[in-house]
UniProtKB/TrEMBL annotation:
Pfam family, any one: Peptidase_C26
InterPro entries the record matches: Class_I_gatase-like, Peptidase_C26, PuuD-like
CDD domains reported for this sequence: GATase1_2 (cd01745)
Taxonomy, superkingdom: Bacteria
MF-aspect GO terms: hydrolase activity
Protein name (database record): Gamma-glutamyl-gamma-aminobutyrate hydrolase
Residues forming coiled coils: none
Keywords of the record: Hydrolase
Amino acid sequence: MGRPVIGITAYVERASWGSWVDVPGALVPHRYVQHVEDAGAIAVVIPPRPDADDGTALEIVERLDAVVLAGGVDVAPELYADERHASVQASRPDRDSTELAIARASAEADLPILGICRGMQVMAVAAGGMLEQHVPDRVGHHEHSPAPATYGNHPVRTVAGTLLADILGEQVDVPSYHHQSVLRHPGYVASAWADDGTLEAMEDPGASFRLAVQWHPEVGTDPRLFHALVEAADRRRRLRSRPT
């Protein structure tokens, strides 16, 4: 039957390679690809589309066995009806529209999905939730994102009885790089917390596999979340291939 195919959302960024300088390219950190393929799947990159809508997103997810909503810049606060905090990064409307549509379409199709950092926030906003725009204002420290391009490391405690707890156990140390977090998450249950009260993971208990984490598992050495996603993708692929 072959391996499951997992889409990973990406940026369009200006990049340089060989003789080509400052050329627009569809980019995602290769660590995402490596983890997905090491876990036994085929990774494909999903570039953002400025014209993305729910119909296009449904066409995308119908061709996939699972999706990873990757990390990146802050979701535009206007999308969850909040005033912009001074710390919020410049918005990327192409990623916002594409990934919000994919989050909605994957929920409709019950496509396995793993949201990572920004991806978790996209999933919450797509469900009608709200974000905390600058975590340090509440917690009084910068441990979740200590410096530009520098990952923090801290423990998170999972919630007993959740899928995440089944995958990772009661506690795990995680690499993190975020200054925002999810405040409200309709349709999801909390599945992990940091010691300072920051929500670190959420999941949909009614879905086959709909899980999001605020940290960055792709930069760490623990592959269990990616293996769990690939296993869910493989189960879905096998069910869809059964003769009716």
